[in-house]
């Protein structure tokens, strides 16, 4: 057995070069006499690692100095709740723009802490496209506007940053962070679960404009306050040190690959290859999303006859193509094309798809 | 360079055999074609791994069926806050027994969510012993009693479970879980950050009596409710899959070692060896804790002349003994002797200590 092409939606593929380095130094890291997992987060060696990871992320994303970078736990889902706790006073309102499952979930977990206004939604159209700007009902008095730039289940993605005026824009970038350059200064807060484009699960990376750190006025434990985490360099308590380490290796790998401009080009090429295969299959395969709103990261597609689904999954796995089963909410297939999925994987996939269509067409 | 003897207080030593297995299968786990970190937590392979880890922990600790076992995130510190959110109604009272730094911290993080009664404290005696039972002021109407069975900084440990009557007993076992057998049925809730006796940081293991899951009545996001995590088999959102995997390997290693009775014997032998070396040093080394209350896991000690501290630390590291520097709150030295620290490590330490004392006595 060896490593196969992995299209998992998350936890997802990690660059093989990153895993190989982690494997080499798993028992003894960097001359320390111990695994990186066995070192105090407060020791000099780990603090240097942590600072280097932050510096590399700042360089990759051109993060302005007035933004703090935090390495947290709890998954994006915990921060669906913690963000209103930190950014909204009790009784305040917040706008949520909903373009799929994760936007819905963010709004619902926020509801105990803020008055949620669904300022945009394409749910009535089954999330087949983004909410059109004419339909937005933004509240200029909102504490913030939350949106999900890429929806992993529905396969829609914002290719431009929505203009929400002066209200701080909060983005759950779990599934498309680092997939291309982004103007961080347009955001109040960016957060991402690591398990798609950064590293293993159990780590959340957050980029927050420092003035927003002062907004948490309601009573809560220190551990929930982003300002406390920022003041403690994300070591208010023991962080996920392994996750932080692998994130750092991934950031170095991204720099080696040429940074986010290069990644954007590759991700565009990968997505184009797959969408062209689907659209050019004469209806054998189908992706229903409005073309302009299609995700580069997650490509859901169906077969013209769902009775072929089981055969497709069995044959694709036999061909070394992993985790193509679609989310249960939509059925069908889904291929996730995060940074660590190389073009060769997508070439293998479209080759398999063409062959399968020919055999079953 | 190779692996040295690691006395870190946490993140701490992990059994070498566990790390070797993790290293072997880092790139490709269990015939899956991917790293265990790259697999969906909702796939059959990972679900089987997760269930096996839980079953092994249940076997090791003889956990009764009316207790749920959860694999969570956030560190013990987050659960200092989340426990009162879940176990106490708004306005309710809870008792805290405080025998060191971590008991204090648990009480202070709980304060926004429950009326904290310090029902016992040895702070006025600098935590040199446990609070004596005659001094306890337990409240029969408390929602729960919280205590810290082992204090990593001060080096005190409860060797018996406190009798708190019918009120549910909540224990932060971060630093002594799995160090010996424990009667789980005496507890309402046991929780532990993984980074001392279980695995890497970023994982919390919780054992909770199922009837207590129904106590969370205040408004909060689903992600904070233990009942939701229990209902979802700790997959309410993406768990720390790597941490869960390494915890499972550690549980198997513990079974291979003969289980918790065998570990208790070894831990007793290790601690006795070190305490005897300290007490028999003619005052060169000193541990100030009441003998009956001394921790088997964390042994703080001072040199008779603190001007020798720097030389001791430099020479011990040169001798392959890592992370002996004491916590900054107490100064001096500290040796943590968790499960993964073998007797040979303590033998090397006491040999070094005798030699150092002879050279500097």
Automatic annotation (TrEMBL), chains A, B:
* Required cofactor names: pyridoxal 5'-phosphate
One GO BP: L-serine biosynthetic process
Listed InterPro entries? Aminotrans_V_dom, Pser_aminoTfrase, PyrdxlP-dep_Trfase, PyrdxlP-dep_Trfase_major, PyrdxlP-dep_Trfase_small
**Which transformation does this protein catalyse, written as a reaction?**
O-phospho-L-serine + 2-oxoglutarate = 3-phosphooxypyruvate + L-glutamate; 4-(phosphooxy)-L-threonine + 2-oxoglutarate = (R)-3-hydroxy-2-oxo-4-phosphooxybutanoate + L-glutamate
Keyword Amino-acid biosynthesis set for record: yes
- Amino acids binding pyridoxal 5'-phosphate: 76-77, 102, 152, 172, 195, 237-238
Query: Which stretches make up the Aminotransferase class V domain?
Result: 5-349
Q: Does the keyword Cytoplasm apply?
A: yes
The family database entries (PANTHER family) matched by this protein are listed as:
PHOSPHOSERINE AMINOTRANSFERASE (PTHR43247:SF1)
**Entry's family note:** Belongs to the class-V pyridoxal-phosphate-dependent aminotransferase family. SerC subfamily.
| Stated name of the protein | Phosphoserine aminotransferase
